[in-house]
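Q: What structure does this chain adopt?
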Amino acid sequence: MTADRARPWLVTGAGGMLARDLLAELAAAGLPAVAATRRDLDITDPAAVRAAFAAHRPAVVVNCAAWTAVDAAEEHEPEAYAINATGPRLLSAACRESGALLLHLSTDYVFDGQARTPYAEDAPTAPRSAYGRTKLAGEQAVRTLLPHTGYIIRTAWLYGAGGTSFIRTAINLERTRPTVDVVTDQLGQPTWTADLAHRLVELGVRALVGAAPPGTYHGTSTGTTTWFTLCQEVFRLLGADPARVRPTTSDRYVRPAPRPAYSALAHDRWQAAGLPPLRHWRTALTEAFPTLLPPPEPPPTPATTPARNP
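A:
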């Protein structure tokens, strides 16, 4: 497949945090893009998908659309399945018919979270939640329908300027609470959406010229940390005392869906595409941090004193 800079990239889930950064990266690279929010394109509707492909004739589709409410998926698995599995299947079928590439975003939740070393791209999957099961079904659809033009990019612990995240929550908690209790028994790789968006563009461009083999890639930062240590780093970047972050364990926070205790992903596959892994999470967070801060509050309006007649 040769590069076609005239045909656009179709970005689904365009209202989300990652998609916003991706659209900015595409614009910076001079690549045409179509931003499709859920209102613009319901990826679970076959007719809507066919119409979108007929109207835009995309060269690359980046599927950022997903049901990401992890706990809610436990009670609404059919609805989550429609977005996380049926949607990717319909997009894959349309890509196969039109010749477009598909970059499909997935998650660390397809693993059981019990490993002690980073999960390889071909490690056995064993999701423990409805969310993980539905995302795995989406991966399987892409692999089945697009063995030569499908790319699955698993990511985790995302944060960015355009949405909610643990880091933005931690920033708010530092300003509103004297201490914060954060779990020490979940380990992962905080990943800046701007870094991942840049990598998605690089991968898609290389894929279009046959320089990146299809298959599964892990789009997370290098290095690992716990939520506890990450929160301490946020406090440090704010100039606050990291000791105000107190360690606790996951059994203090019982939730409908189990969280992976170990979410570290290996990055060996990038070498096949001629690309390095994403940079270390701490380096990325330091650069990203100013973009995550809330805007400063405006100074108070000075009170006016009525003028007196002489």
